[in-house]
Amino acid sequence: MDSETENRFINLETKIAFMDDFIQKLQEEVVKQNNLIEVLRAENKVLSGRIQDLSENIDIPNRRPPHY
């Protein structure tokens, strides 16, 4: 194999190694974000339930805000 072909293979292998590392890091970040989204959804559900409970127990008068 001549040196030009060998250099091309080395360059391709280097690029593939960097891309593999990037994909691994990207996958880890996606997993972290997915976990965070699940936590936020659960918190949102709890807070929505609390708001619903509070709104059922309080009579809110139908009047204009003070800035009118």
Shape: rod-shaped
Oligomer: single chain
Strand content: under 5%
Q: What summary fits the major beta sheet?
A: none
**What is the tally of beta strands?**
0
Question: Structural class, please?
Answer: mainly alpha
* SS field, number of helical segments: 1
Terminal CA distance: 84 Å
What does this structure look like?
The protein has 1 helix and no strands. It is mainly alpha-helical and 68 residues long. The longest helix is centred in the middle third of the chain and has 55 residues.
Brief write-up:
With 68 residues, the protein is an all-alpha fold.
Notable characteristics:
mainly alpha, 68 residues, rod-shaped
Task: Give me the secondary-structure topology.
Blueprint (H helix, E strand, L loop, with lengths): L2 H55 L11
